[in-house]
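Aim 2 progress update. The chain analyzed this quarter is reproduced below.
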Amino acid sequence: MKDLNTALVTGGGRGIGKETAILLSEEGMNIVICSRTQKEIDSVVKEIKMLGNNHIMGRKCDVSKSDEVNNLVKETLVKYGRIDVLINNAGITYVKKLVDTTEEEWDLTLDINLKGVFLLSKAILPQMMKNNFGIIINVSSGAGKVGFEEISVYCASKFGIMGLTESVAWEVGNSDIRVMTICPGEVATKMQKDVDLQYYNLNKHKMLNPKSVAEKIRDMVFDDKKYGNGVSVDLPN
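Predicted structure tokens:
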């Protein structure tokens, strides 16, 4: 495998994104993280610097906005020269029956969870193709393969990630670019806690730790023999 220079991690302010950024930083990579919450981003940047890596950039970015995504990618390329790894991790969910879900909630979920993957991949793939090298890992879910009640919109977005990933993997199949998905089960994150505190408290002991998901993502990044282009990795509870 070629030397990995720079990784961009969306949803990097907490949970899986934060832990992934830390692990890739420990591998000596330049790290760029983004989130819609500046306070969280600043905290992660500070933590990674305290761990000894000053090659870290954090920016507030709404991944559903093409202008913000394009500006982030341009700034990253100016600062670090290239982007070798893209981790599309940003996501939200609502726990609601379909008939109780508003159009606004549908739009926001699909915009962040699925459109964000499209926009980041579209912005970064041209330079990966120019370099004939790159790794994209899209964080889907067990709910991207099996539908569950009361999270129908979330499931739709995660199923969409699966299809998008498979299609792009075919499109780059003649290059040294790998496009993959990871499908974790329930993860003990702030998102899980915020959507249903009672359920979280009752079940958090059975949920995956964000760091264990990040460790699998790191394995997928560095083990190109085991994790080839187009693979989908299940990580059940």
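The mean pLDDT is 94. The beta strands are 6-10, 30-35, 56-60, 85-88, 134-139, 177-184, 232-235. These observations will guide the mutagenesis experiments scheduled for the next reporting period.
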